[in-house]
Amino acid sequence: MLMEVKKNIKLIAMYFKFNLSASMEYRASFLTQTFGMIINNASFIFFWWILFENVESIGGYGFEQVMTLWAISSSSFGIAFILFGNIRNISRMIINGELDTYLLQPKDVLLNIISSSTVVSAWGDLFYGIILFIGVNGFHIGSFLLFLLFCITASLILSSVVVFANSLTFYMGNSQGISSLILEFMISFSIYPEGMYKGLVKLIIYTAIPAAFISLVPVKILTVFSWKWIAILLLAVVVWTTFSYWFFYRGLRKYESGNLIISKL
Fold first, then answer.
1. Which residues does 41 contact at the CB level (< 8 Å), separation at least 6?
2. What is the pLDDT of residues 186-207, one digit of tens each?
3. Which residues contact 138 (CB under 8 A, 6 or more apart)?
4. How far is CA 153 from the centre of its chain?
5. Which residues of the chain carry a pLDDT beneath 50?
6. Which end of the chain is more exposed for a tag (fewer CB within 10 A), N or C?
7. To 10 degrees, what angle do helices 216-223 and 141-167 make?
8. Whole-prediction pTM value?
9. What is the DSSP code string of 22-57?
């Protein structure tokens, strides 16, 4: 078991190194996309700043807490798409029969697929979140380490949900539309104060579309530290990663080869 975990971490690290080297080969493009994304994200700070000039709080949150929501959401999105850049392409690859190459390799199929590509602009999301968090909360080693932990847990949950949504293609045909919609929901529900969500919507973001575990629960913990909420957050990560992994492999039994073999380095 530990050997398998070690091999999978080594595989992710190898792809990370390769993808970073490939991205840096076109340095101007890398820097343009990274800084472009930072500037694009930063424009929302102005919007919220104007809003909080006219109201004291929104949904029980002040300006600093809303910015912390954005910081965690942005950095977790960045980590997910830097390490697992192919998660949005699984559905298309299933439809086109492009999984054959991965099935022939002696590696974990799911990790091999999702780690084999990266999204360059996601570096901008990662850096923006870190800069915003430190800018709003200052640099305190304890809270910063918690921030990094929450970015990792959020990226795992986000990746798991996207893998699940794309794996629906095994069962019901093309699920690209559903996958895009769920990703948009996850992002949208994670960047607004929790007090805005009531009743059924609140139940959904804690269960079926677990956007609450992206940033709402982490901000709750950063505001008032709670071991109970830490345990619930970690449990949510284990449940969603295990479920999406199982769901993908169960669906893989239904995969029909497209007889498409391509060389892959």
1. 70, 74, 124, 125, 128
2. 999 999 999 999 999 999 999 9
3. none
4. 9
5. none
6. C
7. 160
8. 0.92
9. HHHTTHHHHHHHHHHHHHHHHHHHHHHHHHHTT-S-
